[in-house]
Specification:
The complex is a heterodimer of chains A (about 500) and B (about 475). Chain A is α+β, with helices and mostly antiparallel strands and about 500 residues long. Chain A is about 35% helix and about 20% strand. Chain A starts with a strand and ends in an 11-residue tail after the last helix. Chain B contains 13 helices and 23 strands. The chains are: A alpha+beta (about 500), B alpha+beta (about 475). Chains A and B meet through helix 9, strand 20 and helix 15 of A and strand 20 and helix 13 of B.
């Protein structure tokens, strides 16, 4: 079976033709095309994508690929936190406002005392990245945009073109809007009231394996057969998690790319019991949820450090492929270059401690990787504290390609870290969803078992892991240190 | 004519100075530093003497009948061991030698009382700490003599073992009030007074000698003082002015006739004897131009510097690549960045580093001023004076004018010449000595708006230092 995977990420649009083996033992990527999306910043703090550009790029990609490959279905994956306003004829009134857009930051406070209750209902802590605070901002800055409008996310924007009506999957909805009740899997009345919208302004909801057929006009545009099945798919990170984990509990999944995340699958919606609201809890599919969190500062900070030490970016693979330095050879790095999406990670910038005369540029770069992995371990601790244990971690994302990064992850987490080489985890996830949609749960289970045999693990030293545990204790104290918080600036 | 000698940590210099204060001829030879063991940093004592003698011979050639005195300046904190016949047993451990790191913590227990008596905080650089280590290693016996380098040169010239109060006051063994060896310090360092050289005034003639290799007859040997004090004297920098040395280390040094000891238990500055009744008050940061050089080897980039004030944006560099001695006595402090954001580039980091170095110097100046030693303006010395950006940052952070001298490298030689002039009676006090080659030529004034910002930055900087010094947060 050949599937066309359309993956709309924050940085790139990636379209691939995947082949799922008849014996359900492997998925191969036959061809991929990647295009960088143009970020638009019409005013300070803004970060938008053009819906027209996204549509044009998808059309170009699909036309190009279908010249060489016939496909049996299309599966979608889109980034979270995308907010786009369209009119009732589904024509865009706004650009796609991404999670990097900071204009809604000061409107988070309007949620006020409802924050903890909304968190309990939606799994989304009060932070600016979600649609709800963006609506509060838009209502004050340009109310006309919202009049008689539909409020879509990345997934429903694509389905409005491809299917002719806006429908989004429950995973994307729960991780984007801060308005989906994750227990009832319906739009939440308190959240809708807070945002000042009603259900009729929002897309339909469906499971990620919901399938409908491509409408004729879209099929013609893209060079696909009319009535080609379109599978809604998960959000991009969810697809990767599903690919690596297949819905298995006791296995957490970590992604280390431009941003990073750590999530585990749970069979009920678990939110952080502490007032810090450290966990983001989203729906996955089939009455499974994801609990964990994501950090904005990952590969983007590694790139920053490479530039800072004036190293050649082409040296990075050689550095990260090798064995990581010992914990005492790297500085202690709190890599909070960007504002974080988790309320408890507030900091006035990036901090690098314990640089000694023997510290090299290589050690500084590794220090950032270490800091990113320790941020994820903070999330891992939150999972444990909320009764979500995990014995193993599976890793994906751009930086996970490098053996050294995987070894460091094993050392910092003190656990086995599994990796599937040769194919992207999100492609496995999209293949799994296709099987779920076309052949049912049994095929998925068999495929998951087969994927398990492809996992590679790095050996790691228990003694070094204990050294990392000590360093991690210092890291946690640094995160909690009042002096590094913006509120104490200049005091 | 006077032959003035300056033995620094990286070179031996000698100069022939005319009675009018003109440097007629000079000599410079580098000194190799050896590291025979981990944390060791030694100089070959015999080689040092040979280089000094060669310098005296070279600069006095052709003026043999006119040389009236040889005056000596040497670096501080050196410690070597001689046998009873003054043969070298242990070469000179320099101030960079860190082998007595463990003993420093032991001395710390009596730290403030020792500081109150000697003017020397409990730091590994001092010979007191090194002597204790040597004793523990079995390298120091009661029949041995301790040498602080200056006394070895004096011995080689006169056959007598003597040291000036200035160099002695930088050993940690001298009572800086009474100018006698301090019993509490001798006990702490496990040293008998018999092992130490005789104490003499540096600005008086100690002995008249013939130096056959240089064909000099009946020349006065003037013990002089240590290099830092002579730098102040050579520039003519007396309180309320101070020297700001931007060399491998950053040093702030004021020459005053008062004995000043920090009232705070942190012992944030040193107090040494200089010569002729003057005392030296100040502090030395380990992290001077050596850190800039190291930093640029890692964070490679362009030469331009950002115009804005980094600490105002919350960006700080704690520049402690080599631990710290003053005003924060902590060998375990490390280099730290805080507050970096995406928009920051290489030039911003360099600016933040300069600010960090200057904030350390400001903390030293503030500590000295809190103890009633006014610092009105600073005279720049050392290689860092050639970096206009660095000097401007220091002027703004310290909020004081900085004067750049014409030839900053000769100040110690000229200071040694001044002590000889005083010893020979040509001048009544150091302030009468006027050296044209040492005159200031440029003045960098602080910008008042920047001063205000940096004053606020210092408060945050001190808090950050406290966090990283092992406070309860202990990061």
């Amino acid at each position: 079976m050949r599937v066309l995977s359309i993956d709309l990420g924050t940085t790139n649009l990636k379209t691939s033709v995947l082949e799922i083996g008849d014996d359900l033992r492997q998925v191969r990527t036959l061809k991929s095309i990647v295009s960088r999306l143009t970020p638009h910043t019409p005013e300070p703090g803004a970060h938008e994508h053009s819906p027209q550009e996204v549509r044009m790029l998808i059309t170009q990609h699909v036309r190009h690929l279908t010249r060489s490959f016939k496909v049996d279905a299309v599966v979608l994956a889109t980034y979270l936190f995308a907010t786009v306003i369209v009119d009732r004829e589904l024509k865009p009134r706004s650009n796609i406002i991404t999670w990097l857009d900071e204009r809604s930051i000061k409107f988070v406070r309007l949620v006020g005392e409802r924050g903890p209750e909304l968190y309990r209902r939606t799994g989304c802590p009060p932070t600016h990245i979600y649609t709800l605070p963006k609506l509060l901002w838009l209502r004050r800055s340009c109310p006309a945009t919202l009049a008689n409008a539909l409020i879509l996310d990345g997934k429903s924007l694509l389905t409005s073109w491809m299917l002719g009506y806006p429908v989004t999957d429950l995973s994307t909805a729960s991780g984007t809007y801060q308005m989906l009740n994750i227990s009832e899997l319906k739009w939440d009345p308190l959240a809708l009231e807070t945002a000042g919208v009603d259900e009729s302004s929002l897309p339909q909801l469906a499971e990620a394996y919901f399938t409908d057929v491509l409408r004729e006009s879209a099929a013609v545009d893209m060079g696909l057969k009319p009535a080609t099945p379109v599978i809604l798919g998960l959000y991009d990170g969810g697809s990767m998690i599903f690919g690596l984990n297949g819905g298995v509990r006791d296995v957490a999944v970590m992604n280390v790319g431009t941003s990073a995340m750590l999530r585990a699958v749970v069979n009920k919606p678990v939110v952080d019991s502490s007032p810090h609201m450290r966990l983001q809890t989203y729906y996955l599919l089939d009455h499974l949820w994801l609990s964990g969190g994501a950090v904005n500062n990952a590969g983007v900070v590694v790139e920053f450090m490479v530039k800072l030490v004036n190293a050649d970016v082409s040296e990075l693979p050689r550095i990260l492929e090798g064995a990581p330095p010992k914990p005492w050879e790297t500085p202690l790095t709190l890599p909070l270059l960007h504002p974080e999406r988790l309320p408890f990670l507030r900091s006035a910038g990036m901090h690098i401690l314990s640089i000694g005369p023997g510290t090299s540029a290589r050690a500084l770069i590794w220090g950032v990787v270490e800091g990113v992995l320790m941020l994820l371990k903070l999330l891992g601790d939150s999972l444990h504290e909320n009764g979500i244990p995990y014995g193993e971690v599976r890793i994906g994302g751009g930086l996970a390609r490098y053996r050294g990064v995987r070894e460091m992850a094993s050392l910092i987490f003190g656990k086995r870290v599994g990796y599937v080489g040769g194919v992207e985890a999100s492609h496995i996830g999209n293949a799994l969803l296709t099987l779920r949609a076309t052949e049912g749960v049994k095929a998925v289970d068999e495929f998951v078992r087969n994927v398990g045999t492809l996992l590679e693990y790095e050996d790691f030293s228990e003694a070094l892991a204990r050294e990392y545990e000590l360093k991690y204790s210092r890291f946690k104290r640094l995160v909690c240190s009042d002096l590094l918080q913006p509120s104490s600036e200049g005091s | 004519m006077i032959v003035a000698v300056d033995v620094g940590t990286s070179s031996v210099k000698a100069g022939l100075v005319s009675p009018g204060g003109r440097l007629v001829r000079s000599y410079v030879k580098p000194i190799p530093l050896s590291t025979p063991a981990q944390l060791a940093a030694e100089h070959d004592l015999e080689l040092m003497w040979r280089l000094v003698l060669e310098g005296v011979v070279r600069v006095s050639r052709g003026y043999e009948g006119k040389v009236e005195a040889i005056s000596l300046g040497t670096y501080l904190h050196a410690l070597g061991v001689l046998d009873e016949r003054f043969r070298v047993v242990v070469n000179v451990m320099t101030y960079l030698d860190r082998r007595c790191h463990a003993e420093q913590k032991e001395i710390e227990e009596r730290g403030f009382e020792l500081y109150r008596r000697t003017g020397c905080p409990p730091i590994f650089v001092f010979p007191l700490c090194k002597a204790l280590w040597l004793r523990r290693q079995g390298l120091l016996r009661s029949s041995h003599k301790l040498t602080f380098l200056k006394d070895y040169l004096v011995y080689k010239l006169t056959g007598r073992h003597a040291v000036d109060y200035g160099v002695a006051s930088g050993t940690g063994f001298l009572n800086v009030r009474d100018l006698r060896w301090e019993p509490l310090a001798l006990e702490a360092g496990a040293v008998d007074e018999d092992m130490l050289p005789q104490l003499v005034e540096g600005a008086k003639v100690y002995e008249r000698v013939d130096v056959r290799d240089a064909r000099l007859t009946d020349v006065a040997v003037v013990p002089g003082s240590f290099d830092g004090a002579l730098q102040n004297i050579g520039y003519g920098v007396f309180s309320p002015d101070a020297v700001l040395n931007l060399g491998s280390t950053t040093v702030v040094r004021a020459l005053t006739q008062d004995l000043v000891i920090d009232r705070e238990p942190e012992a944030r500055f040193f107090t040494y004897y200089a010569a002729d009744g003057y005392r030296v008050v100040g502090g030395a940061s380990n992290n001077g131009m050596a850190v800039v050089k190291w930093f640029k080897s890692i964070f490679r980039g362009g030469r331009s510097l950002r115009g804005g004030i980094m600490c105002r944006d919350g960006v700080y560099v704690l520049p402690f690549a080599a631990g710290e001695r003053y005003p924060f006595r902590d060998p375990d402090l490390t280099f730290t960045f805080t507050g970096l954001r995406l928009e920051h580039k290489h030039e911003d980091l360099v600016k933040a580093l300069f600010e960090g170095m200057a904030l350390v110097a400001k903390a030293i100046v503030d500590a000295v001023e809190e103890n009633t030693v006014e610092v009105r303006q600073l005279h720049c010395a050392g290689g860092g004076c050639g970096n206009a950006d660095l000097v401007r940052v220091f002027a703004n952070v310290l909020c004081k004018p900085i004067l750049i001298h014409k030839n900053p490298r000769n100040a110690v030689v000229l200071g040694a010449a001044a002590t000889a002039m005083k010893a020979l009676g040509y001048i009544k006090s150091f302030s009468e000595a006027e050296f044209r080659s040492g005159a200031p030529v440029t003045r960098v004034n602080p910008d008042n708006d920047s001063c205000t910002v940096y004053e606020e930055c210092l408060k945050k900087f001190l808090k950050l230092v406290n966090v990283f010094r092992g406070s309860p947060q202990g990061v």
